Amino acid sequence: MVLQMLREELGDTTFFAVLRACTQTYRHRTATTADFTATASRVSGRNLDGFFRTWLYSPARPPVA
């Protein structure tokens, strides 16, 4: 669900660029959640701290519009 909401937040082009960057950067090794969120922010050129705080670290599932 987090990935789908990120896709909606960023749009397809940027979202898939984030996925490509992560798979290229962390190929054959483990990436942490922090690695993924940092890559998403870097590739998108946006501060996604609020998005990830809501969707990853909030105790309850956020409402879906």
Describe this structure in words.
The chain is an all-alpha fold and 65 residues long. It has one domain (2-56). Helices cover 66% and strands 0% of the residues. It is built from four helices and no strands. It has helices at residues 2-10, 12-25, 33-44, 49-56. α1 (2-10) packs across α2. The longest helix has 14 residues, at 12-25. It is globular, with a radius of gyration of 12 Å. The two termini are 13 Å apart. The relative contact order is 0.18. The model has no long low-confidence stretch (mean pLDDT 95).
Name the features.
65 residues, mainly alpha, 66% helix
Q: Compute the number of helices.
A: 4
Average pLDDT taken over every residue: 95
Query: Whole-Å distance between the termini?
Result: 13 Å
Rg (CA only)? 12 Å
Helix/strand structural class: mainly alpha
State the share of residues found in helices, binned by percent: 55-70%
Give the beta-strand count: 0
Task: Please outline what is shown here.
This is Peptidase M1 membrane alanine aminopeptidase domain-containing protein. With 65 residues, this protein is mostly helical.
Write the layout of secondary structure elements.
Elements: H1 2-10, H2 12-25, H3 33-44, H4 49-56
Helix pairs in contact: 1-2, 2-3
InterPro entries: Peptidase_M4/M1_CTD_sf
Protein name: Peptidase M1 membrane alanine aminopeptidase domain-containing protein
